[in-house]
Amino acid sequence: MDIINCINQVSIDCVIFGYENHQLKVLISKSRFKGDFYSLPSGFIFQNEDIEDAAQRVVRERTGIENIYLKHFNVFGKVGRKRQEFLDKLIALNYVNQEEEYQNSDRYKWFINRFISIGYYSLVDINSVIPQTSELDESIGWYNIHDVPELIMDYNQVLQDAYHCLKSDINELSNIYNLLPEQFTMKEIQDIYETILEKTFIRTNFQKKILELDVLERLEKKFTGAKNKAPYLYRVKK
Amino acid sequence: MDIINCINQVSIDCVIFGYENHQLKVLISKSRFKGDFYSLPSGFIFQNEDIEDAAQRVVRERTGIENIYLKHFNVFGKVGRKRQEFLDKLIALNYVNQEEEYQNSDRYKWFINRFISIGYYSLVDINSVIPQTSELDESIGWYNIHDVPELIMDYNQVLQDAYHCLKSDINELSNIYNLLPEQFTMKEIQDIYETILEKTFIRTNFQKKILELDVLERLEKKFTGAKNKAPYLYRVKK
DNA sequence: GCAAAAGTGTTCATTGTACACCCATGC
DNA sequence: GCATGGGTGTACAATGAACACTTTTGC
């Protein structure tokens, strides 16, 4: 990462939601440095790169997914938003007795300025992703939305903000269909809605509501081997 | 404006909507340089300034209004977003035969890089504002939303984007009440809704809808001298 | 009294919610 | 046949749209 080629004091922060088995999770990385430094995936914007492409790149680097639907949900730009505090703590824990050397070096001067975060969120299928660490990560993994550790900076707040927007955008997101295989049942959609919105729907009414959106076409039935009526399969209309 | 104290390559762009007499207008400035360079009010972010405060400052400098409700509606960050083209044209028209001097000077190098616009919109009462030019403006004025001249950069697109958000946020905007005096009639609110949304409402149903929002309290009647029943006055609940 | 415009109420259609009922499936 | 879960239809409530009717105001 050569900061010279990047826009200064601006960060792209991605809240990557993942769905699996009735659970909504978020992708969070842990720094390879001592101390529990958890963070949202983020990155900088190259000078020759659209900001949306930068966000796509961040998602791709961590998940391998290309061209996912991304939504800008907010910007964060208070004066006090600095990595200073977090970095001071990191250096104190990892470079004992070398603090002064680091504080006087130009090496991370650019890094401690206040900076603006441009927030994007996306929603991916956990089963189609093998999370990738960056060179600064010890690990990266999925955390249930209600079981997220304390993150550095104000990222817990950023995350909650993204979650709020995801909920209110769920109907506009024809892209929850990115979570599903080519063909899927109504129950699978309902599970996703119920998980994200954290409420239950009456099965029969939910079906009507979704079909009224007029974005799905009904295919043949799906015989699962279960001893009950086979549900129809659907796919997104072309 | 000392760019050293500002965040580089980031601009705050404000779409300041104004309402007056059944018309929705937008505040647009014209550059004092030769050539028809129209622009949205914009500014930079000081290093010691929240981005929201920077937007408040832009609005205050142009309208005198303090602490108006501001809404972030989008960011614009394509690689091609540069002032280069606009500036080249400006210099060609205003500094004839000095183009080379300008192109080689460091004086506006920082100014021609690609930059990111953080967009905010607000809604103000035209009658309570006397628009103020900046040092670079020849004039500044209100233009009907459907009669906006060609703006520099991609600002026509930015404006349309803001207008779209204003429409869909109108109910969330308890702040259309900033347009109105302390006390107002139901008809005044209806006029604003109809102007912004560009559709008409049935008077009696509109009244029910607004009162159901449960944000207004009814006061005494307003006797205007007109020979008809006096309408009630309302004000926003505390 | 009368025209103008505001307040209230009523009707009808649309949408949403809850649930009863029937149907296919595999054992 | 029977338990399981999916599909269809129905009854009722809530909301929204259109409009009739009544009330107030100043001349």
From TrEMBL, chains A, B:
Gene3D superfamilies: Nucleoside Triphosphate Pyrophosphohydrolase, Winged helix-like DNA-binding domain superfamily/Winged helix DNA-binding domain
Domain of life assignment: Bacteria
Pfam families per UniProt: NUDIX, WHD_NrtR
Nudix hydrolase domain mapped to chain residues: 7-165
Matching InterPro entries: NUDIX_hydrolase-like_dom_sf, NUDIX_hydrolase_dom, WH-like_DNA-bd_sf, WH_DNA-bd_sf, WHD_NrtR
PANTHER family: ADP-RIBOSE PYROPHOSPHATASE (PTHR43736), SLR1690 PROTEIN (PTHR43736:SF4)
Record protein name field: NUDIX domain-containing protein
Species of the source: Flectobacillus longus
